[in-house]
């Protein structure tokens, strides 16, 4: 739980304000009894409480703008052990680990590391949600954007969809994993369809027929072609085994491949022979060659040719190294081709010998066979596509059915608890708020037959308490803006309900309590952790909105 908050800039009557200590149950920040004092720091203190829970709204507050950079020190207590931290207004991305003397005792934590630690301590490290995004929506403070009493599930004032808000609720009630299993099934089914379509687009598999009419036409055509193939097979003197035809075609294909390999081997050996000649004799003419040339061409300019030959001799040494490398590469390629040649021979020997077929017979039989297989592949692709689509439909139905069941359970749990809380507050005289989770992406929240502002705010508070009582949510925070329009009899009863929540922490700021019942006023006084009032009694010992005296 949150145990303590302090800051050097907290003042009262010109003196440092003592650390503010908190406890389990209701923690009250009490303002002016009659409400005549405004801007005294109630909402600011609530934002600071949010700040120590990892929030950032305080950074944009008037206090941070008006005051010098300052440090908020705070303590959490879990399992009887106190953990002390500090967070600066001008460096809110990190949290400092400190001791009781405010000395830093460890490396700074990134804010996400801190909120992850908090989630673990509170048993709120839930799959599918973050600690801050979940807790923040139940800290309804002026300066944040989550106090729309008509849409209490949502935060960030219109930026968050109803679907995302419902997902937070699903995770908070620990139903995320049960839905995620069905969601994964639907996603896998969708991915299989996408893979099937991609395979068709890139022609890895045949295209499916367009519809059932073409599918049936293919069946008729397949029967016709199979009849022709059988008739062709019967035209030979002996029966035709399709496997023998396949073997014959395969051997013919291998023979063509073997011819290509042998041609490649010969070409590489010719290349190797030329390389050997160049390495042994050189690639350029000798002086003897030039003398013979002069015998046939007496007018040739032999001196120039000799110079050229000398130049060639100089570079021959350089080229010989490259020729050696080229020779090694060609020899390696010849070896690879010869291995492939042996493998082809071995594979051909493994194919059972079939009887001799004429080329004309093989061409005709193979053509029919391929046409039949093509039509069968098209129909099989049609069947596969339909099967995948049916699997996706079934997965979608299971997924949405599971969501419906989960939402129904959550809806019943919240509405039942809200009914009980509402009866405590209104004495059972008025309707309780009602949450309707229409679907995974739509909800309504209303108090039947009552659209009043005070009623709506009361209903939002009741919703928060109902969720807290049914989940691991460790705390809620309600600023005075929530209570301003609420009738004081309702507020008085609500204070009594707040006070009954002893296993978790509730933070409220409230003023204008003079019209509350004596019981409520006594509870507020007993649970008060901070008393604020005008001017020197304000949170920071001053009101910067006050005009300076001449």
Topology:
Blueprint: E1 2-6, E2 11-12, E3 15-16, E4 20-21, E5 25-30, H1 42-52, H2 62-66, E6 71-78, E7 81-88, E8 91-98, E9 109-110, H3 111-121, H4 131-136, E10 139-140, H5 162-172, H6 176-201, H7 212-234, H8 242-281, H9 287-296, H10 302-350, H11 359-426, E11 434-439, E12 442-446, H12 453-470, E13 475-478, H13 488-499, E14 505-510, H14 518-526, E15 528-531
Parallel strand pairs: 5-14, 5-15, 10-13, 13-14
Antiparallel strand pairs: 1-4, 1-6, 2-3, 6-7, 7-8, 8-9, 11-12
Helix pairs in contact: 6-11, 7-11, 8-10, 11-12, 11-13, 13-14
Can you give a write-up of this model?
This protein is an alpha/beta fold and 550 residues long. Helices cover 54% and strands 13% of the residues. The chain is built from 14 helices and 15 strands. A six-stranded antiparallel sheet has the order 4-1-6-7-8-9, with helices on one face. The chain is elongated. The model has no long low-confidence stretch (mean pLDDT 85).
Tag the structure with descriptive keywords.
550 residues; five-stranded parallel β-sheet; alpha/beta
Provide a short characterization of the protein structure.
The protein has 550 residues and is of the alpha/beta class.
Number of E-type strands: 15
Q: How do the strands line up in the largest sheet? A: 4-1-6-7-8-9
CA-atom Rg in angstroms: 43 Å
Estimate what percentage of residues fall within beta strands: 5-15%
H and E string: EEEEEHHEEEEHHEHHHHHHHEEHEHEHE
Q: Spans of 5+ residues with little confidence (pLDDT < 50)?
A: none
Class by helix and strand content? alpha/beta
